[in-house]
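Here is the promised in-class demo. Please do not try to memorize the tokens; focus on the logic of going from shape to residues.
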């Protein structure tokens, strides 16, 4: 478009202007916040914002691609975006929340960002089972029993591990897939099961069979995954409302023993939650209405 269909080079000084050149007038951060820019573009932009001059091979390394970094990132992510677009957007949001929180404690932000992008790839096996991929008028669970619904939801961990191994993803990434729900329950359908006269002792059929988080990064991902999904249900996005929601969700995880095997302190969990509250508040801040030009 700029160089007549041929490869071209631009200076680092002009790069921000190049990236911000959009018909809608948004800068890059606004586009990413509004989910108009991709995760890969954000990773590359982060490298430019933090460096003075970057060669292409160095940029690839800094962004975490290639040898020693993420494997099959373009292929798996492209498939996820195509088959489960809602899940892909959810993963983008979780990766941003988790990466920012990781920087507040002694955790690896690059590892957790990669793990967050892959944690839900198992949903590609049955995208419509998950609400973020459903469109208006579609309810996958309408004609299923609570047990059947729970079974299909729980299976995304198994499918995720299968996808990851086929894509030759590294063990730390697979561990994120296995641990991001830990051994929690699908309470929505378990409660529905009990309310319909089902046997409460059958809770095992509504329980994830994953491993409990062991590292700081795995705990952060579990929290980020939970609050990103839950925050979409809020009607009031005040700081107080967001804070109450996050505190409630984290307490439920702790009371359920999901963090009992993890190498993370209560102080670190508190710091992580504080950062996530700030991040969610910034995501859902109010936007000004741009005036139209008078004719």
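The designed amino acids, position by position:
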């Amino acid at each position: 478009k700029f160089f007549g269909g041929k490869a071209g080079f631009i200076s680092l000084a002009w790069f921000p202007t190049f990236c911000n050149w959009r018909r809608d007038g948004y800068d890059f951060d606004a586009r990413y916040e509004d989910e108009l820019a991709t995760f890969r573009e954000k990773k590359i932009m982060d490298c430019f914002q933090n460096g003075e001059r970057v060669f292409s091979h160095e940029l690839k390394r800094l962004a975490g691609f290639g040898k020693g970094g993420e494997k099959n990132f373009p292929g798996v992510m492209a498939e996820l975006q195509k088959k489960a677009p809602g899940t892909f957007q959810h993963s983008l949001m979780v990766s941003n929340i988790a990466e920012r929180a990781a920087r507040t404690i002694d955790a690896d932000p690059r590892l957790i960002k990669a793990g967050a992008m892959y944690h839900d790839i198992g949903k590609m096996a049955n995208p419509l089972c998950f609400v973020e991929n459903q469109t208006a008028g579609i309810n996958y669970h309408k004609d299923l029993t609570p047990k059947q619904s729970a079974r299909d939801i729980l299976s995304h961990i198994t499918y995720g591990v299968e996808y990851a191994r086929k894509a030759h993803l590294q063990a730390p990434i697979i561990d994120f897939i296995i641990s991001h729900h830990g051994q929690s329950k699908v309470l929505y359908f378990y409660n529905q099961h009990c309310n319909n006269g089902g046997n409460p002792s059958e809770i095992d059929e509504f329980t994830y069979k994953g491993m409990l988080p062991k590292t700081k990064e795995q705990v952060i991902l579990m929290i980020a995954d939970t609050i990103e999904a839950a925050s979409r249900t809020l009607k009031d996005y005040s700081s107080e409302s967001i804070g109450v929601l996050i505190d409630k969700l984290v307490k439920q995880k702790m009371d359920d023993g999901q963090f009992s095997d993890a190498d993370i302190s209560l102080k670190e969990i508190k710091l992580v939650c504080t950062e996530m509250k700030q991040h969610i508040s910034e995501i859902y801040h109010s936007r000004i209405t741009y005036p139209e030009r008078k004719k």
